């Protein structure tokens, strides 16, 4: 905490401020969401525990201001099935659960899907079946095995340190790339090699994955998107000896 308080000060309950960003991609006849955030199914107790504060009226409000209805989303790429990344995949009306984006195909790594239904004792609290159970057995679910190019220019890179088969999304077009880092590097503070979340199931695997992915991003001048950083949505990186550091903050 004495180290982290310099960049990520905690409140009286030791909570730090985090964002829960989603990414919208439009083009080639598709509207694609990367992750769906926390959603709106949390009860008052859970909202208080995490001190949930919604900006832009949540994901649906942000889409509405862009003239996009839930039915307009053609695809949802879920980096992984933790509640803060896929909670908005479903919505509740009374006792009924339904898909928030009913026309969308939801793309999930098979190993993460299987893990979410049978997690370990360490990470069971991060998965809530109500966030993804309506996809089970439906034609709205596409299970993927490993790295792939999902659509032209949309690449999936699988990493395992945080949770089995989390998929990072890289969008490549006209010689440039944007890499959505999900929870591999949730904030810019996590760029330092040993700064790894306690949530991670295999921190040493995370360390190796960071050492693989971040130098690639810096060398190729990829823009990287920080899903949870409260003030820095995206940036470019540069190498300084063995370190990878922030180069230039990018306004998305």
Helix content: 10-25%
Radius of gyration: 18 Å
Low-confidence stretches: none
Shape: globular
First CA to last CA: what distance? 30 Å
Number of strands: 14
User: Whole-number average pLDDT?
Assistant: 95
Helix/strand order: EEHHEHEEEHEEEEEHEEE
Query: Can you summarize the main beta sheet?
Result: 7 strands, mixed
Q: Identify the strand order in the major beta sheet.
A: 8-9-10-11-12-13-14
Number of helical elements:
5
Proportion in β-strands = 25-35%
Descriptors for this entry?
alpha/beta; 14 strands; single chain; 28% strand; seven-stranded mixed β-sheet; five-stranded mixed β-sheet; 5 helices
Write the layout of secondary structure elements.
Elements: E1 23-27, E2 30-34, H1 44-50, H2 58-65, E3 75-77, H3 83-86, E4 90-93, E5 96-99, E6 105-109, H4 110-117, E7 141-144, E8 148-151, E9 154-159, E10 166-173, E11 176-180, H5 203-219, E12 223-225, E13 234-240, E14 243-250
Parallel strand pairs: 2-3, 3-6, 6-7, 11-12
Antiparallel strand pairs: 1-2, 4-5, 8-9, 9-10, 10-11, 12-13, 13-14
Describe the protein:
- This protein has helices at residues 44-50, 58-65, 83-86, 110-117, 203-219; strands at residues 23-27, 30-34, 75-77, 90-93, 96-99, 105-109, 141-144, 148-151, 154-159, 166-173, 176-180, 223-225, 234-240, 243-250.
- The chain is α/β, with parallel strands linked by helices and 252 residues long.
- Helices cover 17% and strands 28% of the residues.
- The model has no long low-confidence stretch (mean pLDDT 95).
- It has a seven-stranded mixed sheet with strand order 8-9-10-11-12-13-14. The protein has a five-stranded mixed sheet with strand order 1-2-3-6-7.
- The longest helix has 17 residues, at 203-219.
